[in-house]
Amino acid sequence: MLSRSRALARASRSLYTTSKPHTLPRRTAICSVTPLYPALRLGGTRPFSVSSRAFQADPNNPEKKDSKKSGEPEDSEKQATNHPLPSVIPPPLSEFKPVRYDQLHPDLKVWVNYLLESDEVPEGIEERWNKLSNEHKYDLVQSITKLAKFNEIRADPMGVLRGWLGSMGSQGGNGADGKQGAGKDGKKDGSQGAGGAGGQGGYPFKLDLQTAVFLSFATWAFFKVISPGEVSREITWQEFRNTFLDKGLVEKLVVINRNKVKVYLYSDATAAAYPDSPVTSGNFFYYFSVGSVEAFERRLEDAQNELGIPSHERIPVAYKDEISWTGTILSFAPTLLVIGSIIFLSRRAGGGGQSGIFGIGKSRAKMFNEETGIKTKFKDVAGMDEAKVEIMEFVSFLKTPERFEKLGAKIPRGAILSGPPGTGKTLLAKATAGEAGVPFFSVSGSEFVEMFVGVGPSRVRDLFAKARKNTPCIIFVDEIDAIGKARSKSNFGGGNDERESTLNQLLTEMDGFNTQDQVVVLAGTNRADVLDKALMRPGRFDRHIVIDRPTMEGRKQIFQVHLKKIKTNEEMDFLSGKLAALTPGFAGADIANCVNEGALIAARQSAESVTLSHFEQAIERVIGGLEKKSLVLSPSEKRTVAYHEAGHAICGWYFEFADPLLKVSIIPRGSGALGYAQYLPAGEQYLMSVNQLMDRMAMTLGGRVSEELHFPTVTSGASDDFNKVTRMATAMVTKWGMSKEVGYLHFEDDEGKLQKPFSESTAQKIDSEVKKIVDEAYLKCKTLLTEKKHEIGLIAEELLKKEVLGREDMIRLLGKRPFADNQEFEKFFKPKETSAPPPFPTDIPPTTTETDNPTSPPA
């Protein structure tokens, strides 16, 4: 027969060669240890899983046979006396499910009886064991090992805890067929020696702060399970007197913290009086609360007097102050939290290079590359060919630097994109991100400025640190004027200027000791005039790319890009050209808005496709605003507005250098505008003469002069006209040197200065010259409108009937304009067309003359 140790070795060897880790089903019964060890608390509601690598099988040898000859003694048999049970590492206690012994499998019962009670090996044990499944074998050995380990847990709980955490790699167990090994590093195969259960599943144990906190909590929970501590129950004074005091069961009383009284009873007497009382367990006690110690002492003395207890036999009362260590720690928690936060902030946020608490010092830049799927390409950018060529050169620098380096050229450090809002600066940067093929970091200038000191420079450092790790790359800072404004020469408020610190850090990163040639910085702004000179110098922003409003050809290209997404039956080349002629001075964003508005208007009217009329309505809405159908004018107000707009139209038609009329309307639009007239410049003009300026001012005064000629009184509708005329006349005197009295001087308007850059006498000359120029324009306008008083009536009455007049209506009523029109305009104009005609191709914004509310007070 097999010996006990040989049977155990065979069981262990079979256990270690299972094909996969097993999970104990709920219906499987394991050995119940509760009758043998009542103090052991086993629990859990789910089956445990074998996670140790010692129970994983060799995939090439699922059923490992005994390779030794029958005549040779096994090494495991030699170790049987030292290790009577397999030294496997048990799972946590909470994983065991308590069962009754009588629920065991019959074969398991035989094996358990043999291992726990019988000294003789039953006959047929080897055959019975071989018939058991691997799962049953594991259940049996795991249960027996748990029983064997229990005495160690009670004797040295901390040692067992350390063993569970670290002995998988540092302790060796019984090998199944190997020689006794050291098993120190836990990396060798445990089957070759004493590595045993530690074996291949070992890992080095490292104690850090997180592990220490976990171990502390685990130790506390472990001792709470083993030693549940005292159990108490609160009673009332009456219960205390009737149940214990009157029967003489009270040994002593202890007043805790002057508000609670702990009752100590005679255990023997209490057990005799109350056999079911929990006091007999030793850790149980009763207590009751008191509001006042003095009142408690009086009541206790009165009670003992009533019972006739002699003074030398009275119940002793002790006073004790107990402080809960958990309460003490919690009381210091807010202070410790504040101190810890201060230390953390001082080390991280104030440390410069660190990111700070919650990553407040980290850059908010978003990185894009070929995998992020930026769909915008250079082919989607139109109307800025020169700027696109400049930016494409940067992309070529980064993609093929050797082509430039072999000639000794250096890649420019950066470029700044400046221009009016909506001209496509950010769009060009997005196209660069889509075409570059290198990492692209995008960030807004306002993201560097926060309320905390040092955050801005920290984010700049973090941004460039990320960029240097991903070279070659491009950084794009949108709206850089948020941090790049010129630094002031004096600091009136004192202290530290966070914006200037951020700017200084940006200057250092762009051109300093730690500069990388493969990091290119692009920036966009519409206020290039306020940027710091140190930021604009070569070596930082080498290229200054100005993106202005597109020309007529540029607008046509932009319309073609946006019209590709619109369903329309119009001929694309003609439609885009005519819309470009209708929208002089429009930027790319305005064009995109017009196209979208046209599609919305068509959808609102349930049209099948978007037509030219829909786009014309959209242009009117963008220029003049939304029609105010709810604003109904009285007949007298409507007549005044009609004659006011007719005066503007006549001046624009008969003055040579005035802008020709495109459309005039007396329908209220926008905020406070009761009518408007749209004029188109006669051509692309970059210089203005005195005659041109005088004609423009005379046309602007046409509305007020028309009111004077046709009504007994005037209204406040010309306030905006006077503002425009005054600004033009002032510029002629103070900026353009068109006044002989003042001379050839230039006085720049600076709202930041408290005093004007000229003397009082010069100011009087400026005022008189401005008035002289305005009076001259007024006289010129009045002379013309007096001659054309009949024509004003024709236009005004037609406006009252139709409310909207176009260029064709003006030709029908007044005849052809006496001055030559731009030929580029005529090719987009159809003679039979009744809608608003297209304008001249020009880059000067349309002049919109609005009639304010006549009922508002005069300007």
TrEMBL record:
Keyword annotations of the record: ATP-binding, Hydrolase, Membrane, Metal-binding, Metalloprotease, Mitochondrion, Nucleotide-binding, Protease, Transmembrane, Transmembrane helix, Zinc
Coiled coil feature spans: none
Regions of biased composition (Gly residues) lie at: 171-181
Just give the chief location class: mitochondrion
Keyword set includes Transmembrane: yes
Q: Which GO terms describe its biological process?
A: mitochondrial protein processing; protein catabolic process
Q: Where is the composition biased (Basic and acidic residues)?
A: 61-80
Swiss-Prot/TrEMBL catalytic activity: ATP + H2O = ADP + phosphate + H(+)
A Pfam family of this chain: AAA
Gene3D superfamilies the UniProt entry points to: 1.10.8.60, 3.40.1690.20, P-loop containing nucleotide triphosphate hydrolases, Peptidase M41
Q: Which SUPFAM superfamilies match?
A: FtsH protease domain-like, P-loop containing nucleoside triphosphate hydrolases
Annotated membrane topology is:
Multi-pass membrane protein
Domain named AAA+ ATPase: which ranges?
A: 411-551
Q: Which cofactor does it need?
A: Zn(2+)
Q: Where in the cell is it found?
A: Mitochondrion membrane
Q: Which GO terms describe its molecular function?
A: ATP binding; ATP hydrolysis activity; ATP-dependent peptidase activity; metalloendopeptidase activity; zinc ion binding
* InterPro entries xrefs: AAA+_ATPase, AAA_lid_3, ATP-dep_Zn_Metalloprotease, ATPase_AAA_core, ATPase_AAA_CS, FtsH, P-loop_NTPase, Pept_M41_FtsH_extracell
Which NCBIfam families does this entry report, sorted A to Z?
FtsH_fam (TIGR01241)
Provide the family line.
In the C-terminal section; belongs to the peptidase M41 family.
Name used for this protein in its record: Similar to Mitochondrial respiratory chain complexes assembly protein YTA12 acc. no. P40341
Q: Which organism is it from?
A: Pyronema omphalodes (strain CBS 100304) (Pyronema confluens)
